[in-house]
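can u pls check wat happens w/ uracil
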Amino acid sequence: MLSRDDVFTELGIGPVWRLRETPASPHTPDASPPYTWDTLTDAVAHCTACKLSATRTRGVLGVGDRNADWLIIGEAPGVEEDTQGEPFVGPAGKLLDAMLASIGLTRRDNVYITNVVKSHPPGNRDPEPDEVAACRPYLLAQIALIQPRLILALGRFAAQSLLDTHEAIGSLRGRVHAFQGVPLVASYHPAYLLRKPTDKARAWEDLCLARRTFNSLTPDSGPLSL
Ligand code: URA
């Protein structure tokens, strides 16, 4: 049985993770200014840092438990999310809820859901590099405030952008990475799974990997046999 420190070392877990048990520091070195939830909410609502602000209805910061252990990160708000101001509320969101339920989680309890980019890209196109860069301080601030124990990156875009790679999602999934010192598991985007249900079995494997990883890092998280 690996000790917690062995697992930290194995996964290359860095400072944010190790700070989990110290008082929350609401900033990270490259997220400026240091945000509180109030200033972050306000900043995203009024953000004009990229061209998406001209076409979006509202900035979509995220939803869920601000003290969550699990942070789910998608790509960007779709049309319905842009209207309602909450991530993953469309058909992909319904599937995400079912995926979370399959490993004993719900979107408001110990889970926080957000996107790499907080504004809806017109026509659901991929966010562009300058748009990802403009939103990065917001994502880093969310991670510093939440201090999640595990990140689940949903879809090619989120996984590639968080891991700064062009590797295919098919090869990124199935292993544990790290982002900002937090263990990260990548899987298929629920919208993709709606188009290709035969890959749901692989997504289930990824969810089991995420759950196992989480359980190995948090002895008090309660066993869930998968
Ligand atoms: N797809 C995403 O990646 N995020 C959302 O919030 C909705 C759909």
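The two ends are 18 Å apart (CA to CA).
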